[in-house]
Design a protein that fits this description.
Blueprint (H helix, E strand, L loop, with lengths): L2 H48 L16 H72 L1
């Protein structure tokens, strides 16, 4: 291999390593944001669960609502409203947490793959630099 070809390959490797390192930085930022979102969502889920009693409030007394209407409303709150409220944290928030966790795994794997590529390119760069040195010494 001649000196020109080696220099050309070295420049291309440097360009590719720079692009890969930029992608790593971007993915690490994305990973940070995903982890932050997951933490915030978990806190919201806890707050939401802690507020569950609010869907059963206020309690109705004989002075606020009478007879059959009070029973119907109380039954609605306990059977339908509370079930719907539980479904939000049990299903919807949990599904969102699962999707974020899956995305975290994907991004983490992408970072790992990119770092492997950079490592491989660095090895190629070292080999080409050694070849360049040998070609210069033969000249």
């Amino acid at each position: 291999m001649d000196l020109y070809s080696i220099n050309t390959e070295l420049m291309e490797l440097q360009r590719l390593m720079g692009a890969a390192n930029l992608q790593i930085t971007e993915k690490e930022e994305e990973l940070r944001r995903l982890k932050e979102a997951l933490t915030k969502l978990s806190v919201c889920k806890i707050d939401f669960t802690d507020s569950k009693s609010l869907c059963l409030a206020p309690e109705f007394s004989s002075t606020t609502l009478h007879g059959d209407n009070a029973n119907k409303l109380d039954s609605y709150r306990k059977k339908e409203l509370q079930v719907s409220y539980n479904a939000i944290s049990d299903e919807q928030i949990s599904n969102a947490e699962e999707k974020i966790s899956q995305q975290i795994e994907i991004v983490t794997q992408g970072i790992s793959d990119l770092k492997g590529s950079v490592s491989s390119m660095q090895t190629q760069h070292t080999d080409l630099t050694n070849q360049k040195r040998e070609v210069k010494n033969q000249s």
